[in-house]
Every structure is written in C-alpha cells, then in structure tokens.
Write the structure tokens for this entry.
Amino acid sequence: MIFDAIRESHDLQRDLCRKLTASRGDMAARQLLFLQLKVELMAHAAAEERHLYVPLLMEDGGLDASRHALHEHHQIDELLDDLSVRNKKQAGWIATAKKLSFKVRHHLKEEESKFFQLAGRLLSQTKKKQLARKYTQEIVRMRRHYSAKYETVVVAASTGLVKPAKRGADRPATSGSASAGAQLRGKSEPRRTR
C-alpha cells in the first residue's frame, strides 16, 4: 500500500534528522548527513505530492488536508534553503537544523496519525496499490535527480537509497570551482564577487 511505502521514507527521515542534530565537530560528516537528508526530503516531497496529494486534491474531502500538507512541505523547503550554506559551523546553524528536525517530525506524525486515515477512506484499495507502485518508482527517480547535483552522495543501485559517494570513483572531483561551491550551498549559481 501507498502508506507503507511512504512510511519507509519517513523512518529514514527521522533517523537522518536525529543524526544531523546530534552531529558535532566533524563538519565533513555533518555536510554529508545534511545532503543525505536534503535529497531524501526533496525526493520524498516530490513523489508524495505527485502520487498522494494530487489524487487527494481531486477529492472534495481531501482538499484542506492536502493544502495543509503542501504548506508544510514548503516550510521544510525554506528551512533547507536556510541550512544550505557552506559553513555548517556558523552560529545558529545547528539551531536551524533542530527547527528543521522538529518541523519534519511534526509533519510526519501528522501525516501518519491524521492524513493517512483520511486518504485511506477516500482512496480505493486498487488506487492505493497503484499509487504505491508509482510512488516507489518516483522517489528513487527523484533521489537520483537531486543527488546528481552533489559529488558526495549517490543513489545505491541495489537499494535505491541515498548514500555517501566513494571519493573519486563515482564522480569527477570539482573542488575549487565556483560551481562546486554553489553546489555545496545547494544553489545553482556561483556567488557573485566584487
């Protein structure tokens, strides 16, 4: 069912949030955890919006709940943007990461305790199975799409999950370029300098 497929990503998100907010000292490890979480959150949101929220938006009873969930995805995106800076040691970064973790956990709990029950009543068994297949394919595709922006994470062929890349083996090194710095910050364009 669609809800079981989504819960797998939810469990992964909770684990990554816990590890990120507990990270201390090793900024390379923090950056890697952040990118894994960022890719997972973005891929999950895209797949979930396409294969759960949109079908529920077509049902009168699903309009308000879907709009609320979409709003929370937007809030999470804004926090990810705030955290997508090169220096993960700067003042306030871990506090913002904790805000993100709280927002993610709140959203997941709300989905699992309220939204899934509503969707379960509005969608047929056949539709739930179809959506589960589509969601599962889409989240892996979106993980590949988002992880392609970074040289330090890849999607494992065997599991479809985001994992650390092997240095030099999976991607060519781009360190030192303005584009690489922009990628680390999660931006598409290099910073402008005077």
